Amino acid sequence: MNKLSLMGLFGLVVRRDLLLAMRRRADVLTTLIFFVMVVSLFPLGVGPEMDMLRKMASGVVWVAALLASMLSLPRMFSADHADGTLEQMMLAPQSLSVLVLGKIVAHWMLSGLPLALIAPVLGLQFDMSPEALWILVLALLLGTPVLSMIGAVGAALTLGLRGGGVLVSLLVLPLCIPVLIFGAGAVEAVTSGMSVASNLAFLGAFMLFALVFSPFVAAQALRISME
Amino acid sequence: MAINWFKYSAPTTFYGLAGKLIPFFAWPAAILFAYGLYIGFFVAPTEATQSEAYRIIFLHVPASILSMFIYLIMAGYAALGLIFKTRLSSMMAQALAPTGALFAFISLWSGALWGKPMWGAWWVWDARLTSELILLFLYLGYIALQASIEDPRRADRASALLAIVGSVNVPIIYFSVKWWNTLHQGATIKMTGTSMHIAMQQAMFAVLIACWLYVIAVTLARVRSIILEREANTQWVNDLPEVKQANGGQQ
Amino acid sequence: MLEVANLACSRGDHRLFSGLTFSLHPGEIMQVQGANGSGKTSLLRTLCGFIQPDEGDILWNGKRAHDLGEDYYAELLYLGHLNAIKDELNALENLQMSAGMAGYTVTEQQAIAALRRMGLQRREHLPVRVLSQGQRRRVALARLLTGDAHLWILDEPLTALDVGAVGLMQELIGEHLSKGGMTIFTTHQPLQVAGVETRQLTLS
Question: Distance between CA B79 and CA B31 in Å, rounded?
Answer without folding.
Answer: 34
